[in-house]
Amino acid sequence: MSAAAEDVSRFLQANRGSARFRVPSTALQYDALLRKGLSLGVADAAATKLGIPRERLARLIRISPSTLERRFKEKVDLTGAEADALYRIIGVLGVAQRVLVNDANVRSWMSRPQPGLGDRAPLDLLDNAAGTEAVTLLLEQIYHGIVP
Fold first, then answer.
1. What is the pLDDT of residues 60-111, one digit of tens each?
2. Which parts of the sequence belong to the Antitoxin Xre/MbcA/ParS-like toxin-binding domain (predicted)?
3. For residue 15, which of 97, 77, 76, 71 has the smallest C-alpha distance?
4. Is 34 part of any domain?
């Protein structure tokens, strides 16, 4: 399994809340999980780890805040593009937890402008694949002692 998938697995294992599902161990199992749907408990855990309200999380996964709230009221899992976007975000969170060690460090680092990201806050880049990749790359560079 890739390092990114291992980071996602660690995050899911620790933060799946009341949702009981087998944490995938292969790319095909992750594909099946995303097609079935990511639980709202995972979405809430991601928002908590990032220190952001659900409204901001909704924007990061590219749905309206009212749609996300409706999903919570109706207890409907996130599927399709929403699940894929949340998967990318929890992948970054998994790397951030590995690199920055604790939740307070993760929240602080993710919300502050970073020189290695053109003085943009990592949170501001998590709404698309390229931005997510840039944040992950910077975290990996920090982990390996490479400071841009």
1. 999 999 999 999 999 999 999 999 999 999 999 999 999 999 999 999 999 9
2. 96-145
3. 97
4. yes
Cβ atoms 46, 93 nearer than 8 A: yes
Nearest to 49 by CA among 98, 138, 110, 5: 110
**If 0-12 CB within 10 Å is exposed, 13-18 middle and 19+ buried, where does residue 143 land?**
middle
Q: Which helix (H) or strand (E) covers residue 123, if one does?
A: none
pTM here is: 0.89
Structure-block tokens of residue 32: 């099946």
Residue 133 domain-assigned?
yes
Work out the burial of residue 122: count CB atoms within 10 Å of its CB; fewer than 13 is exposed, 13-18 middle, 19 or more buried: buried
Task: Tell me, yes or no, whether 148 lies in a domain.
Answer: no
Q: Which of 9-13, 19-23, 65-69 is most confident?
A: 65-69
